[in-house]
C-alpha cells in the first residue's frame, strides 16, 4: 500500500480523497494555488505545497510543478481526482517516468478512450452496442454527407477530441450540413487543436445512463450498477440519481454486461464509467468512457454501501478486487450546488460566503469544501457542494432532498439551490418522465 499520496486537485474532491486516505492510514499532500491557500483541503492534508498563481494553467495544470511537489514530499502516488489532469495522457506518462504511481488510467488507455472515434471502433470490436454512424473519422464534407444520407437524418456531427458540447452540431436535414460542418470544425480546432470529425445517428428522446465499473491489474472487471444523468444543461450534468427510474432488471443486466465487455476490451484498471444513450424503447448505445472517478460517484457509493475512492487506491496498489457485480440496495439522488445564478442565465457568482448552514439528518450527505467566511475564487469550476440524499424508495428520496435543500442556507453568493428545489416539485421529474432535453423547456420562474 502507498505510504503517501499527493492529491493533484482542489475543492470537494481533494477533501474527499484526503478523508479516505486518512482512514486507510495513508499520509496526504495537498497542492494549491495562491487563490486556494485558505481552502479546507489545504488545512486537512498532512502537508501542503503551493504550486503557482491562481490561473489553472499556472498551477493545477502545471505538470512539472506537481511532479516536483511529489518528489520533494516523497509521495509515492498521485491521485488526480476528476477534471484538471485526471485524463491527461502526458501527465500519466510523466508520473510513470518519475516512478510515481498515477492513480488512474495509463497514458495508452487515456489516449485510446479520449479519442472518441478510436473508442467507438474498440467498442464495436468488443461487441458493445454503438450508435450507427461513420466508421472512423470523416475524410471530408462529401464523406460526411454520404454517411448522413446512409444512416438517415437527424444526425449528430461530433469532434473526435470534443467534450462539454464543443465541436458538436445537430443536423436535421441535408441543406444544413455544410454550415454545421464548417462551424463545428472551427470550434473544435480552436478548443482542442484538432478539427477531425465523426458522425452518429441522433437518438431522439434519449436518456443518459452510465455504468460504474472497476477493473484490477489481473484482468477482472465488475460493474456497480447504473446512474441516471439525464438532467443536464448544455451537456453539463445538474443532478444524478441511482438507480435510474427508467431502468428495469433486464436493461440493468444488459447494460452491466456491456460495460464489463468495454472494460475487458481495453484491460481497464481502476474505477471508470461507461456512458450510454438509451432510447425510449430501452435500446442503449455506447457514448464514451470516462477513465477517472466521476463527480457523481457518491450516489453509487450510497446505494451499494461502498467506498469507490478506497477501491480505486487499492486497485492502483495492486490489490485484487472481488470481481463481484453490485445491484442497488436503495435509492440516492445528488444535486450539484454551483455558485451560479439560475435566474440570470446561470451567471457565475464567486465571492465571500457570509452565512452557511448545511442540512443534516438520516440519509443526508454533503461533499463540500466551503465554510462561512470562505471566499469562492472566480478562476475555477463553479461547483461548491454536492448534496446527496438516500432512502429506500425514489419517492422518499425526493421528499428528503426537498427537505434538505430547504435547510441548505448559503448567503453572500447566488447558488443553484432554488433550481433544485423547483426540480423536486416538478411533476414530470417526480414521475421519472424526463430525457436529456428536459432542461430545454424547464422554466425556473414558472
Given the helix and strand composition, which structural class is it?
alpha+beta
Mean pLDDT: 95
- The gross shape turns out to be globular
CATH architectural name of the largest domain = 2-Layer Sandwich
Strand content: 25-35%
Query: What gyration radius follows from the Cα positions, in whole Å?
Result: 21 Å
CATH homologous superfamily heading of the largest domain: ATP-grasp fold, B domain
CATH class (first level) name of the largest domain: Alpha Beta
Tally of distinct domains: 3
Measured between the Cα atoms of the first and last residue, the distance is 54 Å
Query: Helical region count?
Result: 15
The largest β sheet comes out as:
8 strands, antiparallel
Strands of the widest sheet, in order across it, are: 13-12-9-10-11-14-21-19
CATH-derived topology of the largest domain: D-amino Acid Aminotransferase, Chain A, domain 1
Q: In terms of per-residue confidence, which ranges show pLDDT below 50 for 5 or more consecutive residues?
A: none
Detailed description of the structure:
By secondary structure, the chain is α+β, with helices and mostly antiparallel strands. The chain contains 15 helices and 22 strands. It has helices at residues 11-23, 40-44, 63-72, 89-97, 107-114, 116-126, 141-151, 177-192, 249-265, 297-304, 308-316, 394-407, 417-425, 427-430, 438-441; strands spanning 4-7, 27-33, 47-52, 77-79, 101-102, 155-163, 166-171, 197-201, 207-215, 221-233, 236-242, 270-278, 284-290, 331-338, 340-341, 347-348, 351-352, 355-357, 364-368, 375-376, 383-391, 409-411.
Amino acid at each position: 500500500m502507498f505510504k503517501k499520496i499527493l492529491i493533484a486537485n482542489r475543492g470537494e474532491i481533494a477533501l474527499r480523497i484526503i478523508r479516505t486516505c486518512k482512514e486507510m492510514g495513508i499520509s496526504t499532500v495537498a497542492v494549491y494555488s495562491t487563490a486556494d491557500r485558505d481552502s479546507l483541503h489545504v488545512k486537512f492534508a498532512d502537508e501542503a505545497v503551493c504550486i503557482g498563481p491562481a490561473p489553472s494553467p499556472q498551477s493545477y495544470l502545471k505538470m512539472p510543478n506537481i511532479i516536483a511537489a511529489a518528489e520533494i514530499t516523497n509521495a509515492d502516488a498521485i491521485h488526480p481526482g476528476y477534471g484538471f489532469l485526471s485524463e491527461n495522457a502526458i501527465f500519466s506518462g510523466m508520473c510513470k517516468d518519475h516512478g510515481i504511481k498515477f492513480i488512474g488510467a495509463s497514458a495508452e488507455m487515456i489516449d485510446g478512450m479520449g479519442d472518441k472515434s478510436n473508442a467507438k471502433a474498440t467498442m464495436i470490436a468488443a461487441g458493445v452496442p454503438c450508435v450507427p454512424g461513420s466508421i472512423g473519422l470523416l475524410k471530408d464534407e462529401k464523406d460526411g454527407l454520404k454517411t448522413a444520407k446512409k444512416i438517415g437524418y437527424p444526425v449528430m456531427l461530433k469532434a473526435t477530441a470534443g467534450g462539454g458540447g464543443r465541436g458538436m452540431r445537430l443536423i436535421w436535414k441535408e441543406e444544413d450540413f455544410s454550415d454545421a460542418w464548417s462551424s463545428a470544425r472551427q470550434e473544435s480546432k480552436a478548443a482542442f487543436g484538432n478539427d477531425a470529425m465523426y458522425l452518429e445517428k441522433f437518438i431522439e428522446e434519449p436518456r443518459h445512463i452510465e455504468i460504474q465499473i472497476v477493473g484490477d491489474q489481473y484482468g477482472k472487471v465488475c460493474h456497480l450498477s447504473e446512474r441516471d444523468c439525464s438532467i443536464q444543461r448544455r451537456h453539463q450534468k445538474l443532478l444524478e440519481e441511482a438507480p435510474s427510474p427508467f431502468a428495469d432488471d433486464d436493461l440493468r443486466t444488459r447494460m452491466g454486461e456491456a460495460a464489463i465487455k468495454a472494460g475487458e476490451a481495453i484491460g481497464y484498471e481502476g474505477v471508470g464509467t461507461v456512458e450510454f444513450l438509451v432510447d425510449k424503447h430501452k435500446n442503449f448505445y455506447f457514448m464514451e468512457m470516462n477513465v477517472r472517478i466521476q463527480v457523481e460517484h457518491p450516489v453509487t457509493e450510497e446505494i451499494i454501501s461502498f467506498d469507490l475512492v478506497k477501491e480505486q487506491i487499492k486497485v492502483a496498489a495492486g490489490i485484487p478486487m472481488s470481481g463481484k457485480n453490485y445491484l442497488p440496495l436503495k435509492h440516492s439522488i445528488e444535486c450539484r450546488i454551483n455558485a451560479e445564478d439560475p435566474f440570470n442565465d446561470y451567471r457565475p457568482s464567486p465571492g465571500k460566503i457570509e452565512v452557511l448552514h448545511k442540512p443534516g439528518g438520516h440519509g443526508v450527505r454533503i461533499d463540500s469544501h466551503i465554510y462561512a467566511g470562505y471566499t469562492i475564487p472566480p478562476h475555477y469550476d463553479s461547483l461548491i457542494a454536492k448534496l446527496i440524499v438516500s432512502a429506500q424508495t425514489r419517492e422518499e428520496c425526493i421528499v428528503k432532498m426537498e427537505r434538505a435543500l430547504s435547510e441548505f442556507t448559503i448567503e453572500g453568493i447566488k447558488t443553484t439551490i432554488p433550481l433544485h428545489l423547483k426540480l423536486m416539485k416538478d411533476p414530470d421529474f417526480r414521475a421519472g418522465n424526463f430525457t436529456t432535453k428536459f432542461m430545454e423547456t424547464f422554466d425556473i420562474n414558472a
